[in-house]
Amino acid sequence: MASQSQGIQQLLQAEKRAAEKVAEARKRKNRRLKQAKEEAQAEIEQYRLQREKEFKAKEAAALGSHGSCTTEVEKETQEKMSVIQQNFQKNREVVMSQLLSLVCDQTRDPRELPHKWLVLGGGQCPGSAGSQV
Questions:
Q1: Where are the coiled-coil regions (predicted)?
Q2: Where are the domains of the chain?
C-alpha cells in the first residue's frame, strides 16, 4: 500500500508540475501576443505617418501654385482696400460739408436748388417728378 500511496503522490506531483508548465506556457503565449500587438501597432503607426507625410508632400505640390495664387489675390485685395480707405479719408470732409450745406442751407428762391444739384452732380432734383435738369 505504501507503494501505491507513493505512486499516487508522484502522479499528483507530476500533475501539479504539468499544470504549472501549462500555466507558464499560457503566460508566455499571452506575453508574445501582447508584444506582437504592440509591434503591430507601432508598425501601423509608422506606416500611417509615412503615408501622411507622402500625402502632405503631394498636396503641397498640387496646391503649391494655388497657394501662390491665393497669396497674390489677398495682396491685391489688401492694396485695393488701402486705396479705398485712402480715398475715403481724403474725400470724407468734402462730402460731409457738401451734404451739410445742402441740408442746412436755406435758400430764399427755390429755383436756385436745381442749380445746386447740377453743380454737385446729383443729376435730378428732388421733388421734380422725375425730370432731368
A1: 8-57
A2: 2-91
